[in-house]
Amino acid sequence: MADELNDSRKNSKDEQLDSFRVDDKGKTLTTNQGLKVSEDEFSLKAGERGPTLMEDFHFREKITHFDHERIPERVVHARGFAVHGEFQLYKSMKKYTRAKFLQDTSKKTPVFVRFSTVNGARGSADTVRDARGFATKFYTEEGNYDLVANNIPVFFIQDAIKFPDVVHAFKPEPDNDIPQASTAHDTFWDFVANNQESAHMIMWIMSDRAIPRSFRMMEGFGVHTFRLVNDHGKAHFVKFHWKPALGTHSLVWDEAHKLAGIDPDFHRNDLWGAIEKGFFPEYELGVQILAEEDEFSLGFDILDATKLWPEEDIPVTIIGKMTLNRNVDNFFAETEQVAFHLGNVVPGIDFTNDPLLQGRLFSYLDTQLIRLGGPNFHEIPINRPVVPFHNNQREGYHRQTINLGKVSYHRNSLAGDTPAPVSEGEGGYASYQEKVEGRKIRARSESFADHFSQATLFWNSMSLPEKMHIIEAFSFELGKVKSESVKQQVVDMFANVSLELATAFAVNVGANPPKGDGSTITKSSPALSQENTPKTAKTRKVAVILTDGFNGPEVKYVLDSLMTEGLMPEIISENIGTVQGTNGVKLRAKHTFLTAKSVLFDAVYMVRGSVKNKKFNKDAAYFIDEAFSHYKPIGATGVGIKWLEINDFKGKPGVIVGTDIGEFVEAIAAHRFWERMLV
């Protein structure tokens, strides 16, 4: 009977969580012990004006809980946002791995995904220049598997012992706690210049990848080289990739700045709103697989976390799709208390000797002990596996399991030597038997010594607009650095990546141009440029500017057509509420220019200004001008076309006149029109 009950609980993570969901609406107020409360306005006192009494257990429980509502925020990845979803396999990976969730194409595996920034505190903005976390917890039939990824495929350092150093360097400077959520300061760039293994990561951080348009439009990378092991004990090296169905797209730097003030929750709002509207984000899971005998065939060490495997050399094979389809019920209970750990693996997925990975295997578990108050964080509902767990761990802070019986040790006779291990053939996890020999030593392999070739590969792979953005990013960041020595060190360092790059930002920050011939590497990887990403208009937000008297049938046709194509038009008018058009057409304005700015939208459709309201017209002109300066598509019909003529936008790239919806949607799918840089 117990086994049947456990089997039923495997079916759905949602079903398991149901018993923890509480709706307080319409309920009687009680203490945490279930005692009904008769008064919640006044503490118990000795007389109306007397002192509060210690025996007021309700007051003490309420205040104590309030005092302890905040758990320590994560040191890194503090600002996060998470959603539920499911993963389904396209093709069986049985040839490579024992992992059951990577073998059965008919099974849907529940997942929980947390996106995050790395640097800033919980109260920082979403759109800062930073790497993004992309952590996925798979609730599999063999236990939880955590793929703890980033939106950048490499990292700053090669050995985990330096992790405290890089985090200390990019966090606010300790004397004044400035700047928040930014690396534009002396200590970070001093670290970079004196730890040159960071060169490749810095190129990604200075690129458009560090300011994504949306969590829905960024890639995820497992960073490390892992192992897949099949039923016969045969192993292959693997890199994991998440590929967004909407393509990989970014903000421009000016947008990112403004959004941090206008809507610091921009990425949160975007993800939450998309799911609420039924636009469920999709990501395909891809793998790069390398045979063990080819470990040294790539010209660099595959255990080096500052290196990627070029997709042109080792193609990414798409094996499944993840769909994110439900927002959390409670941010704290789920998003804040979820605990990811690279050591949460299932049979068929194993580790390599990557020294950064090896250190993370310790650090993630250790971090949860201080954040979540002890060793029982796995019992928090969001962290519980969908399969039962049985072991001899007992007690500790926040223990919820009520263990029956007197035995809590192995081996034993009183409980028939249970709970007992099982063999690998019965589903037990067995580590890959890699042969390891060597002296105890604190050193780094010479195969980790190349710090610049892949940084140059990244630079060579960028389009002209992307290169210009990287130069601007270096110029901004180093422009905030006070130390002339640090500036010069960084210039000289990145001359090893590209003399063109280093010379350009050296001039901008007042440093001496670098000397030397620069890199001779000419290889590029088209997969690294966002110019080659899938492009679609689906789920893009379109600002529709109109006032009373608009052409009703024409505008209704355009809006209906946009929604049919999967876009989200939102109307901006003089007031929030009904806007009256011709032929009895009425539309509802969701925004005014006080509540909506162009940076919140992907495109603009200009219909009609105001007959009398000069401020509205002035704001509309600024709105369109700003969108144009951010290279966004702009459409106009009827009276709205005059606005394009006033701003001299008519005929420019990405400016669409008339009601040809196909042309406008195609322009929105293009995302940006960089040709305007030269206009």
Automatic annotation (TrEMBL):
Cofactor: heme
Residue ranges constituting the Catalase core domain according to the UniProt record: 30-418
PROSITE patterns: CATALASE_1, CATALASE_2, CATALASE_3
Record-level Gene Ontology MF annotations: catalase activity
Gene3D superfamilies, sorted: 1.20.1370.20, 3.40.50.880, Catalase core domain
Keywords linked to the UniProt accession: Heme, Hydrogen peroxide, Iron, Metal-binding, Oxidoreductase, Peroxidase
Superkingdom in the source lineage: Bacteria
Span list, region Disordered: 1-25
Keyword Oxidoreductase included in the entry's annotation: yes
EC numbers on record: 1.11.1.6
UniProt keyword annotation of Iron present: yes
Catalytic activity: 2 H2O2 = O2 + 2 H2O
Root EC class: oxidoreductase
Similarity-based family: Belongs to the catalase family. HPII subfamily.
Role description: Decomposes hydrogen peroxide into water and oxygen; serves to protect cells from the toxic effects of hydrogen peroxide.
Protein's recorded name: Catalase
Organism of provenance: Oceanobacillus longus
